Amino acid sequence: MARNKKHATTKNQSQKKQKSFINVGPTERILSAVGGAALTYYGLKKNKSALGIGMATLGSSLMVRGATGYCPVNKALHRDSAHTPVEAIEIKKSVTIYKYRHDVYNFWRHLENLPRFMRHLSEVKQLDNKKSHWVAKDPTGRMHFEWDAEITHEEENKVLAWHSLPGSEIENAGEVWFEEAPGGRGTEVHVSIYYWPPLGAVGKGIAGLINPALAQLVKEDIRQFKSIMESGEIPSIEGQPHGER
Amino acid sequence: MKALCWTGINKLNVEKVPDPSILNPKDAIVKVGLSSVCGSDLHLLDGYVPTMREGDIIGHEFMGEVVETGPEVKKLKKGDRVVVSSIIGCGGCYHCNHGAWSLCDNSNTHPALLEKTYGYAGAGIFGYSQAFGGYAGSHAEYIRVPYADNGMFKIPEGISDESALFCSDAFPTGYMAADMADIAPGDVVAVWGCGGVGQMAIRSAWLKGAGRVIAIDRLPERLEMARTHGKAEVLNYEEVDILESLREMTGGRGPDRCIDAVGMEADSTGIEDVYDRTKQYLYMQSDRPAVLRQAIVACRKGGTLSIVGVYGGLMDKFPMGAAMNKALTFKMGQMHGQSYIPRLLEHVQNGDVDPAYLLTHKWSLAQGPEGYKMFKHKDDQCMRVVFAPTL
Question: Which of A7, A18, B131, B296 lies at a CB distance of 3.0 to 4.6 Å from B113, suitable for a disulfide?
Fold first, then answer.
């Protein structure tokens, strides 16, 4: 399935002929922006520790890189990721949900539900039975990205896979398996999400830094999916009172 | 509103903070009537529970009046007088549906913090550190109660605020200790620790059919309470050899069921106490296991250890050999309040148990820091200080 797609990842991004200061490709820009914002967020949450400040600083510079499309490191290395083919990174997460398999499957299959638990998505619109239009925003809310995706494989109550369509700003894919958990424990959900980061040493280095934050984001999204399915809401303390900090 | 905030190790401060608001559809806002200190708060104060944040409002054992409900709250309404479980449960996950509310999969807002060390995270708890969800606590004029239909219980007419209050945490914790101990008729039950939870464990052991109950502590007033209200035989570990006494009192068999209502800051005597305190001070162990060690050795072969005293991390010199070779059963956990509170309110209503005697001091919220100081040092024969924000 989507696993095979790792080997078919060439993406033609060389339409851009004119000389431009932009030397960060769209996928990398988005990863930089989203990952950078995630790093900044987790860095700031870390209570002023050295690691937290480091994460926040790196995060905000990645955000700038994402927003402007200009990376001084790329420039210094004469590297231009706006034009390179890439290999997928995979983020996997499994969770067991105390609900019947058809309920869990149907909630996900109704793709318009996804933004309820995937925080970087602001909207998914189903265009027809297979095609959908996705809108994502970075956590700061300053930028937004849109792409179309297509369901590539579907077996009711069992598996759902999708892939972004050619020409998308963010090339990504996903695959979810739904299995009955033993002993009446509900439904096991096995999620794999794929993103296509840039190639090369810098790209790998940056992906290495961003991936943990992205992986964390995906894992929290899946946890929120479980919360919504089981309890109808996502637990929150955002906005509750506290004393001076 | 006024709220009692944790501002650092052994530092509390009464501060003016914004009122809470409904954040989720199943939330309710409760005007706090009474809010009790709890021995487990001392672990927060003493700095043994990491992930406290400056400004966190503490307090988790409380009752009050519903003043606002979210659109998805169906069972309770504005004006209801309620007691609230200190443990927060979503009501939808596998564990909540099997009565194990303190293992709720969804109520902890920061599960990743505990997963690093525990593998899996437990439920959220009011006012009990970021690792347990970071929920604002009850030592305040108002509190937000998530999943309100699960955690709030309407107090029947005729039960006073003071009697209902301890059905929030101390009584269900003590009751769960007795429940987990699997007491058979005639069993000898030994209870380590005669604080609020220990006192309720003693009462609950009788409700569960114990033949004899033996209570262990060092404070004469607490032992006296265990004797008069709890009808327990009492042992002061500063005066007698506990292992020897328990052996003698049980015809050489040892108690059948042993309850640890003390937890990670156990006091003991002699060289063992010095050893554990030193290691804890040097961060070489987070928990002082004196009570557990003693209970394992004291327990009869094939007996049960029921642990409701709170532990946080790692401990040293744990007599696993004794536990294994004596074929002991260990049961433990944070309490599953939602499973127990309805039947405990019935016990209170029937007059089987009136937990109000745990309340020794009723103070205003402004006296919060002072109250905890007194509670910590057990001054003035303090069992439980209860804050009434309206005072």
Answer: B131
Instruction: Please judge whether B90 and A244 are an interchain contact, meaning their C-beta atoms are less than 8 angstroms apart.
Output: no
CB pairs under 8 A between A and B: 99
d(CA A203, CA A71) in angstroms, rounded, equals 11
Number of domains in chain A: 2
- Kindly state whether residue A242 falls inside one of the protein's structural domains: no
Has residue A77 been placed in a domain?
yes
| Cβ–Cβ gap A243/B7 under 8 Å | yes
- Does A241 sit within 8 Å of B3, measured CB to CB? yes
CATH of the domain at A213: 3.30.530.20
Burial track B158-176 (b if 16+ CB lie within 10 A, e otherwise): ebebbbbbbbbbbbbbbbb
- For A27, the domain range is 8-82
Asked whether the predicted pLDDT for residue B303 surpasses 90, the reply is: yes
Q: What is the pLDDT of residue A16?
A: 35
Q: What is the pLDDT of residues A215-241, one digit of tens each?
A: 888 899 999 999 999 999 999 999 999
Three-state SS for B167-229 is CCCHHHHHHHHHHHCCCCCCCEEEEECCCHHHHHHHHHHHHCCCCEEEEEECCHHHHHHHHHC
Q: How far apart are CA B363 and CA B374, in angstroms?
A: 12
- Is the pLDDT assigned to residue A59 strictly greater than 60? yes
Q: Which CATH class is domain B2-169+335-387?
A: alpha beta
The closest of B84, B49, B80 to B67, measured between CA atoms, is: B80
Domain covering B173-332 assigned CATH 3.30.230.10 in the classification = no
A214 falls within a domain:
yes
- Residue that is last in its domain, among A60, A82, A104: A82
B337 against A211, higher pLDDT:
B337
- What does pTM read for this prediction? 0.86
Last residue of a domain, which of A41, A57, A82? A82
**B4: closest chain A residue by CA:** A243
Residues near B76 by Cβ (< 8 Å), separated by ≥ 6? Answer: B28, B66, B69, B82, B148, B149, B152, B154
How confident is the model at residue A28, as a pLDDT? Answer: 63
Q: Do B92 and A237 touch (CB under 8 A)?
A: no
Distance from CA of A117 to the nearest CA of B (A): 14
CA B313 vs. chain centroid, Å, equals 17
pLDDT band at A12 (very low <50, low <70, confident <90, very high): very low
CB-based contact (8 Å) between B23 and chain A? yes
